[in-house]
Design goal:
Structural class: alpha/beta
Oligomer: single chain
Distance between the termini: 79 Å
Helix content: 55-70%
Number of helices: 24
Largest sheet: 5 strands, mixed
Length: about 525
């Protein structure tokens, strides 16, 4: 009997649910790279909160900072989850866990595209596109706040799309969709946008179907749907109630306080945008669109245009509608509410996978369309060229892929001095390791170092004769970033630079010898 090919098995209705080869290569990538990523400025505090949360859930008598656990602004469910597998501040191991958790989103991307196209190759295209989106891949290892939300947000979108197709009974469907939305919202309150997205998506499904409910008006159909929608809301809120300590005492008052603090959130710092130092309180509406335009690879931006020119099959059109709703609703809320945002795409990183999958659909539809073979060949060449250029730039920027800028910005050199680059300070690791080598040459001398950002970003890599010095007066060396510190340096201070971490000729962090 002749072995059955993958395409034959797909056509016979036996789907291949997981991208095993891609996942194998991705896990190999994780194992080969996890030691290279530096500690980012948020990590020490976030893992510290995770320790407190983990104790709150499992060892409440050991909680030594109950007020911290009950803070309304954030829920540190994800770092508490990491604490189950890696206790304490073992940053290298935590970076590996973060990377492994990122595999969830690649599985979700594959699942939704396979459900739409029933072809392994097309489904893998979405995984490859997301992997080659530097602003997402570069954040996975050392951003335990924004990337977990991006992963869970897309997983919830995948659930909204897939669960009605895979699970019978609207009760079970409501439970799983509600839990996925609740988990995403527990990581960031913006996950609540998934509730209106779910309702709007179901309405879009109604109107997309030629005869959605024979003999029933839209009003009748809507009344029939309300119980399920109510259950989705109920299960999502029960999930939040169970996993968000701040909601333990008074759920409604707690929710109000969460919304209030999120709306009034204030960050007192300055950021570099379009060549000027501004304060986030300026709330420029152009901030987020500019960052998306300048940091998204061109093959992703181009792919977003194609789906508007070809009528897609129902399953694919349904997926496109869902992703388009997620993108447009969140951008509309951004323009309407004008929240305080900084550090580039960080706060809206969860939309990057949405854009990547939409672009994958665009390119797939283009190549499945009735364009002339010569046009498709030219498109293949241009797509491959830009994909290779993006991959090459990722190699040059590694392990700081999240500072990527596309050709519109002129790459990283073109963006330098105009936009934030290493805002998380991941390159401080390399500078600290270099200084540790220098200190090892003089073991009898104490090296006093003025550091940038959170202390562990530097002193985690210090040698035994190195000390973290809080002020300049007594410091022997200064580790300074290329952010606002560079603009504060006098010409005389710049002459004291003895080492710098650079990518594509752009300095990211300096080491200055002060004495």
């Amino acid at each position: 009997m002749t072995p059955t090919s993958s395409d034959q098995r797909e056509s016979q209705g036996r789907p291949i649910p997981y991208p095993w080869l891609f996942l194998g290569l991705y896990f190999l990538f994780c194992l080969l790279t996890y030691r290279d990523y530096g500690i980012t400025c948020d990590e020490p505090a976030i893992y510290g909160w995770g320790i407190q949360y983990s104790r709150y859930y499992f060892l409440p008598w050991l909680v030594d900072n109950l007020s911290a656990v009950e803070d309304a602004t954030h829920n540190y469910l994800y770092p508490a989850f990491l604490e189950l597998f890696c206790s304490g501040y073992h940053y290298t191991a935590l970076h590996l866990l973060n990377l492994l958790f990122g595999s969830v989103i690649f599985i979700a991307v594959y699942q939704v595209l396979f459900a739409g196209y029933q072809k392994v190759f097309w489904a893998l295209t979405g995984c490859v596109f997301l992997f080659l989106t530097p602003r997402f891949l570069g954040e996975l290892a050392a951003n335990p706040k924004d990337t977990p939300f991006a992963v869970l947000y897309f997983a919830a979108l995948a659930g909204i799309y897939l669960i009605p197709r895979k699970i019978k009974g609207w009760g079970l469907q409501s439970f799983w969709i509600g839990v996925l939305i609740g988990l995403a919202t527990c990581v960031r309150i913006m996950g609540l946008t998934l509730l209106p997205i779910f309702a709007l998506y179901r309405c879009a499904e109604y109107f997309q179907t030629a005869h959605p409910a024979p003999g029933k008006s839209f009003r009748g159909w809507l009344l029939q749907q309300l119980p399920q929608w109510g259950l989705v809301i109920l299960f999502s809120q029960l999930c939040m109630r169970m996993l968000w300590p701040y909601l333990d005492h008074d759920y409604f008052q707690g929710m109000w306080e969460i919304f209030r603090q999120s709306h009034d959130y204030y960050w007192d710092g300055i950021i570099l945008f379009a060549g000027k130092m501004i304060h986030p309180s300026a709330r420029l509406w152009t901030y987020l669109p500019s960052w998306f335009l300048l940091t998204t690879p061109l093959f992703i931006l181009i792919g977003l245009v194609f789906p508007f020119f070809r009528k897609k099959e129902k399953a694919v059109s349904s997926l496109w509608n869902l992703l388009f709703l997620a993108l447009s609703l969140n951008l509309a809320l951004y323009l309407a509410l004008k929240p305080i945002v900084y550090n580039g795409l960080r706060h809206y990183l969860f939309l990057v996978p949405v854009l990547s999958v939409m672009a994958a659909i665009g390119w797939i539809e283009f190549f499945r369309g009735s364009f002339r073979p010569a046009v498709k060949k030219i498109a293949v060449i241009l797509l491959a060229a830009n994909v290779l250029m993006t991959a090459a730039q990722c190699v040059r920027l590694y392990p700081y892929d999240y500072i990527y800028f596309n050709e519109i910005a002129g790459g990283l050199p073109g963006a330098y001095g105009k936009y934030e680059t290493d805002y998380y300070g991941a390159s401080v690791k390399k500078a600290s390791e270099w200084l540790a080598i220098e200190a090892a040459k003089e073991p009898n001398r104490i090296f006093k170092v003025k550091t940038w950002g959170a202390g562990p970003q530097s002193n985690y890599y210090f040698g035994p004769n190195m000390r973290d010095q809080g002020d300049f007066q007594d410091a022997d060396y200064w580790i300074a970033s290329n952010q606002e510190e560079e603009f504060q340096m006098t010409p005389d201070m710049k002459k004291k630079i003895v080492y710098s971490v650079e990518r594509e000729g752009v300095p990211l962090v300096y080491v200055l010898k002060l004495k």
